[in-house]
Automatic annotation (TrEMBL):
It holds the Pfam family Ribosomal_L26. The gene is rpl24. Located at the polypeptide exit tunnel on the outside of the subunit. One of two assembly initiator proteins, it binds directly to the 5'-end of the 23S rRNA, where it nucleates assembly of the 50S subunit. It comes from Huberarchaeum crystalense. Residues 124-152, 177-186 have a biased composition (Basic and acidic residues). Keywords: Ribonucleoprotein, Ribosomal protein, RNA-binding, rRNA-binding. This is Large ribosomal subunit protein uL24.
Length: 186
């Protein structure tokens, strides 16, 4: 069994398969969920201009390899921890007669139809004109914000008084100059 190590997002790719497996094994769930991806069908690739997407519940997929090859079905469940996808069709009978879903790796699937119920699947929707105007108003820079960035002093009342006065005078001048330059560029 793989040894548990602290997972690092800054890890550089290794050629060694054992290190790649260890990286996948120790990855946190928010990274593992990105690994549960499948290719889109050619029609969907043209429509969405993407080659692959995460598989989510209620997507219709086509199984590309294995015993259930070329069969289509709905995704019932996803086990992110083990990176397994369970499809309606992929069932196996146990010895006692009960049926069990067979886990399939997402790389062996192709998405035929997407579940579009989740609005966050393709990112944010385009903003309306009113929302764009509101965001422009919020992005205006105030002199106090520039003062805090330049000096690093959030509350000008801390520190010795003589240094405070000098720092405040200098920063106010530079802040006003920067605001003027920013307004000219707009």
């Amino acid at each position: 069994m793989a040894t548990t190590r602290k997972w690092s997002s800054s890890w550089k790719a290794s050629v060694q398969p054992r290190k790649q497996r260890l990286y996948n094994y120790n990855a946190p769930l928010h990274i593992k969920s990105k690994m549960v991806c499948a290719h889109l069908s050619k029609d969907l690739q043209k429509k969405y201009k993407q080659r692959s997407l995460r598989v989510i519940k209620d997507d219709v997929v086509k199984i590309m390899t294995g015993d259930f090859k070329k069969q289509q079905g709905k995704v019932i469940r996803i086990n992110t921890k083990k990176q397994e996808v369970f499809v309606e069709i992929a069932k196996r009978k146990r010895q006692d007669g009960s049926e069990v879903f067979v886990p399939i790796n997402a790389s062996n699937l192709q998405i035929i139809e997407l579940n579009l119920n989740n609005p966050r699947r393709f990112g944010k929707k385009p903003e309306t004109e009113q929302e764009m105007q509101k965001s422009e108003k919020d992005t205006k820079i105030k002199p106090q914000q520039i003062f805090e960035k330049d000096t690093g002093i959030k509350n000008p009342q801390k520190g010795s008084k003589s240094h405070q006065k000098k720092d405040i005078k200098k920063s106010k001048k530079t802040a006003k100059q920067k605001v003027e330059v920013l307004e000219e560029t707009r």
